[in-house]
Amino acid sequence: MDVRYAVSKKEYSRMNTEELRENFLIQNIFEADKINLTYSHIDRIIAGGACPVKKALPLLAGEELGADYFCERRELGVINIGGAGTVTVDGTVYKMDHFDGLYIGRGTKEIVFKSNDDKAPAHFYLNSTPAHKEYPTKHIPLVNAVHRACGDFKDCNKRTINQFIVPGNCDSCQLTMGLTQLEEGSNWNTMPVHTHERRMEVYIYFDIPQDNVVFHMMGNPTETRHIVVQNEEAVISPSWSIHSGVGTKNYTFIWGMCGENQVFDDMQGVKTTDIR
Questions:
Q1: Kind of pairing, strands 214-220 and 223-229?
Q2: Contact 235, 7 (CB under 8 A)
Q3: Structure confidence by residue, pLDDT tens digits, 137-179
Q4: 32: domain CATH number?
């Protein structure tokens, strides 16, 4: 498990490109027959991926958590962005098709990831946060997410926000999670920008066509930087940072948030003309 420490506005302002990528960019999320995880000290979120190909992959706590099992004190969100597979949760098997989601509550002892076809393996993207109580495991197919149409073609940002783990759709302690799809011809997300003083966020960008990239905009609104992101790479976004992106073509991304407030629209807006 890769461990990343918190970075304040002060340290951020002095970072060069390599240092920004070292602190905020998560690469190599999906490797065959491995579970790769990054532990961020920003609200103690864990982000990563499980890519079972030839074998099933159990999710273990590891020494970093100091726990007997991964969800002893944590909750977990899963969205499959690859081929069909299954997640076994304390003996119950959940079929996970492309873009299916799954919430797994605190106290779950056994979590095992498996693909149906090693030629088209599942890519299970994971977000996990500390949890203070137990909520039931819930399977959330894409059709059962909350769908919010946003933007328009004239602003190059027509997209659908699919909310999987949000209040009213799936109970959780602090984790919220969803998937945003940009339509062909649109390449901007989250513009005008905002920050979340009460929540941090992690983005994973994917469905980026070959030889294309996404420019992830981050930082203090009056002192912005960018990180160039390739397919299936993620960015850690502190609460003080904006988190917007523009791609050379349309793309899809999963957002996961945690902190002390789960209200989706709890944010501090920034006028586009005030960005520096």
A1: antiparallel
A2: no
A3: 999 999 999 999 999 999 999 999 999 999 999 999 999 999 9
A4: 2.60.120.10
Contact 130, 74 (CB under 8 A): yes
Q: How many domains does the chain have?
A: 1
The candidate with the shortest Cα–Cα distance to 31, out of 57, 64, 6, is 57
Cβ-Cβ contacts under 8 Å for 18 (sequence gap 6 or more): none
- Tokens standing for 151? 């933007």
Which residues is 223 bridged to in the sheet? 220
Confidence of residue 198 (pLDDT cuts 50, 70, 90): confident
DSSP-based three-state secondary structure for 260: coil
**Any bridge partners for residue 228, and if so which?**
215
Domain range enclosing 42:
2-274
Please give the order of strands across the beta sheet that includes 85-89.
57-58, 111-115, 85-89, 92-96
